[in-house]
Amino acid sequence: MRAIALILLLALAPCVAAAAPVKLKAGDAAPQFVRTDLLGKPFDLKAQRGKVVLIDFWASWCAPCMEEIPQLSQLQKQYGARGLRIVGIAMDDSAAVTRATMQKTAFTYPVVPGDAKFGNLYGGVLGLPLQMLVGRDGRIVTIWNEVTPAVLDKAITAALAKSGG
Questions:
Q1: How many domains would you assign to the chain?
Q2: What confidence score (pLDDT) does residue 94 get?
Q3: Does the residue 70 lie in any domain?
Q4: pLDDT beneath 70: ranges in the chain
């Protein structure tokens, strides 16, 4: 009986391995996605090619995430004309919760709903906040968990300058 269980487990291992998220790192191409934001507008990452994109994974229950939103909104205002595009990926359990949060907090950038499958596309989102800075070429520049405003500003400025912005 154990031998049969072991054979079945080994036979299923490739399927299980294929479903596991692939850890992303700087230099990797950012996985493409198209999602409708919570205001009903489509957001297509591929259409942002030529811009520097900051992808921010967050949730309303995450205190550090909520502290970063005003800073991110300010960065969008400050660098948007130079080619920065921020997109929030809300990892809340429901769009209603995210919409309620958006009514209380000013966002200057689109917010799209996320889920575990979407998180796996980005290497498995195991902790929040999580940000990925994507260069104009569509490649990941860097990945952070809880980045300071100074470090974030410096990285965005460098990415914009490197890309001719």
A1: 1
A2: 94
A3: yes
A4: 1-20, 163-165
pTM: 0.86
Write out the E strands in 22-154: 34-36, 42-44, 52-58, 84-90, 111-113, 130-134, 140-144
Instruction: Provide the CATH number for the domain around residue 60.
Output: 3.40.30.10
3-state secondary structure of 24: coil
The strand pairing partners of 29, in sequence order, are 139
Are the C-beta atoms of 111 and 99 separated by less than 8 Å? no
Please give the pLDDT value at position 20.
67
- Whether the ω angle into residue 70 lies within 30 degrees of 0, i.e. cis, is no
| One-letter amino acid for residue 1 of the chain | M
Q: How far is CA 150 from the centre of its chain?
A: 20
pLDDT score of 4? 39
With respect to residue 4, please indicate whether it lies within any of the assigned structural domains.
no
Phi (first) and psi of residue 35, to 5 degrees = -140, 150
Output the pLDDT for position 146.
Answer: 82
- Does residue 129 have a cis bond before it (omega within 30 degrees)? yes
Which residue type occupies 31?
P
